[in-house]
Write a structure and sequence with these properties.
about 10% helix; 6-stranded mixed sheet; about 400 residues; Immunoglobulin-like; 2 domains; 28 strands; mainly beta; 3 helices; 8-stranded antiparallel sheet
Length: about 400
């Protein structure tokens, strides 16, 4: 009997402790206060504002976490000073659109009594004429103030509307095996220890025949002693599986590429790890020892004698870029449709957007224009679109 009493005395503090925790939990629940936030920012403050054409409108509303008992007035404003803090938070390089290209129509929304969502204010894009190609724009719309006693949830006070333009572009058709050529630069880029190589491609079809290899591109020294090669269907892989071969190793994509679809491939080497991204998502990686590379020549398609037809690439190419540094994931994702020609570390930028002639101009300003010695077929159609 004494032992039983002793056990009860031992257990009593534990029971009381549990009761205290439960009481505290219940108390916190009872003390919960409704808050106001900008609608849609619960999980992500960055929201796409798709713009196709000259004028586009996005409605911004405020939401209360519970129905309000009286009318609540929410005052909105566009505050461009918030961009710097958001860039620091996300390691991004967003800019406010040029002055006069956007406006906030109305700045007040009301959450009516018995409801929890306000009427909308409108953000309008008036023109994209002064937008800089490759630059990413956001419009920060924030809650300036609210009436009544309901407070604003600070984490969701501001929405960053990313202006996602739908862009038309030109491309080159590299289906003709007579197009292929290893272009040697008069100004090679030497002593490359870190890099990012990017190329945008569109597969019309996979070529017929027993040889299923489709060679997309290769860069390196003129003698190809340290290659960086992109090809489909090699070494027993599927015909729509991409292989990246470098002097440091190789990897096959997990992505199985579809026809009639644009893909941006980004190959990044940070000095020890090779990472391949497909449309802004990490697809494959491998480790490798430090190496020194050279951008002395760029090959588009297959140039080896006797293989031009057997390993031809039936498709289009645009947006070839070379950086002397590894890009971050954010930079890769923001550059899927194009990049700022003055971006840090951009050493070669061939948009393939000239639409005529046979010169691919280097938009980076480093003078690596390519006067292609073969006939160039340009394509501009409804398939050449990119949504930022």
């Amino acid at each position: 009997m004494k032992k039983l009493s002793y056990k009860i005395r031992l257990a009593l503090p534990v029971v009381l402790g549990l009761v205290s925790v439960l009481f505290a939990t219940c108390k916190k629940y009872v003390d919960f206060k409704d808050v106001i936030m900008i609608t849609g920012t619960e999980t992500n403050k960055l929201i796409k504002f798709t713009v196709e054409g000259t004028t586009a409108t996005y409605g911004v509303t405020a939401t209360a976490t519970g129905k309000v008992s009286e009318d609540v007035t929410v005052n909105f404003e566009i505050d461009s000073t918030l961009i710097a803090g958001y860039n620091a938070e996300t390691s991004a390089k967003y800019a406010i659109p040029p002055k006069g290209s956007y406006e906030l129509v109305g700045n007040t929304g009301i959450i009516k009594a018995g409801t929890n969502v306000s009427n909308a204010v409108s953000v309008k894009i008036l023109s994209t004429a002064k937008f800089v190609d490759g630059r990413s724009y956001v419009i920060p719309v924030t809650i300036k103030s609210v009436t009544g006693t309901t407070s604003v949830l600070e984490a969701s006070r501001t929405v960053y509307l990313k202006v996602a333009r739908v862009l038309d572009f030109n491309s080159i058709d590299i289906s003709n095996p007579n197009f292929y050529y290893p272009y040697a630069f008069a100004q090679p880029l030497n002593n490359i220890t870190k890099y990012t190589f990017e190329i945008k491609c569109y597969i019309n079809d996979w070529h017929p025949g027993s040889n299923q290899i489709s060679r997309l591109s290769n860069w390196g020294p003129v003698d190809e002693s340290l290659p960086n090669l992109l090809r489909f269907g090699e070494a027993g892989s599927k015909i729509n599986q991409l292989q990246w071969v470098s002097a440091g190793g190789s990897a096959f994509s997990t992505t199985e590429f579809a026809t009639k679809t644009w893909y941006t491939i980004s190959c990044v080497f940070d000095g020890s790890t090779y990472r391949m991204y497909v449309n802004g998502k990490l697809d494959a990686s491998f480790e490798g020892a430090p190496k020194t590379y050279q951008l002395g020549a760029l090959e588009i398609g297959m140039s080896y004698a006797g293989y031009q037809t057997a390993q031809r690439f039936l498709g289009r190419v645009a947006e070839i870029r070379f950086w002397d540094r590894p890009l971050s994931l954010t930079e890769i994702q923001e550059g899927l449709c194009g990049v700022d020609a003055g971006a840090n570390g951009l050493m070669g930028y061939w948009k393939m957007n000239e639409a005529s002639g046979n010169t691919f101009f280097d938009r980076s300003g480093h003078g690596r224009d390519m006067a292609w010695p073969k006939a160039v077929t340009w394509i501009t159609d409804i398939n050449n679109k990119c949504a930022q």
